[in-house]
Design a protein that fits this description.
Length: 238
């Protein structure tokens, strides 16, 4: 295919049987950045990554490129022939030692920093892992992140239910207090009404006005409302 054709065209006439023919690069960013980045920013990330490879290793040595979006974290896979300036295959010389690889990370971070990306911790004690293990780690982190978001949403929903229940409880208590007060007043008026009937039955008619005045004062003490004597109203109308 095209990639194999490009590879053969970059191989020197003679090279060791155990020589590394191509070096794979995997270029990506944090899952959080991918989630927030716009489509334009993502396209710029891939374009700048390809530019960095071409500037560093030569466009002719970058024999294959592939953008993967079907996994949890999008990334660029690139294959570069480790051909030195004098035409030899030397992955060791091409990649360099630890300090050179650290500088490569710094240079690459500078290339994409205008997209809101920062270099990883320089001098980190983190150990190298294979690309397959890296993918597994990224998938695990992504799943943990989604699980955390789901749990946070459930906690928020539970807190809303609790707040709603507390508000309903307060409303119920207020309604219960008002109902009890209304029942209490109703019982008072019922008692007074029965008392008035008994008084009217057991007393001569001429004592009714004075008895009504006494009951009027009692009602005023209970709820501040005055019940006027019908007998007095008749006298005022005369």
């Amino acid at each position: 295919d095209e990639a194999m054709g490009n590879l053969r065209s970059r191989l020197p006439e003679k090279y060791r049987k155990d020589a590394v023919l191509a070096v794979e690069y995997m270029m990506t960013a944090s899952p959080d950045w991918w989630e927030k980045a716009s489509a334009q920013q993502q396209a710029q990330f891939f374009a700048k990554s390809v530019e960095w490879l071409a500037e560093k290793y030569g466009k002719e040595n970058v024999i294959a490129l592939a953008i993967h979006r079907d996994e949890s974290t999008p990334h660029l896979s690139a294959y570069v022939v480790p051909r030195t300036a004098d035409g030899r295959l030397s992955a060791k010389e091409f990649i360099g030692n630890r300090d050179k690889m650290s500088q490569d990370q710094t240079d690459y971070a500078a290339k994409v920093q205008d997209l809101g990306l920062e270099r990883g911790i320089q001098g980190s004690k983190a150990k190298h892992v294979t690309i397959q293990q890296f993918y597994r780690n990224v998938n695990t982190i992504q799943q943990d992140y989604q699980d955390a978001k789901t749990k946070a949403a459930k906690v928020d929903a539970a807190e809303n239910v609790i707040r709603s229940s507390e508000a309903n409880k307060r409303n119920y208590q207020e309604m219960e207090a008002k109902l009890n007060a209304a029942l209490s007043n109703a019982n008072h008026y019922k008692t007074i009404s029965h008392g008035m009937i008994e008084v009217l039955k057991s007393n001569p008619i001429e004592r009714v006005p004075s008895l009504l005045d006494a009951m009027d004062k009692k009602l005023k003490e209970m709820d501040g409302q005055t019940v006027k004597s019908p007998a007095k109203e008749q006298e005022r109308g005369r």
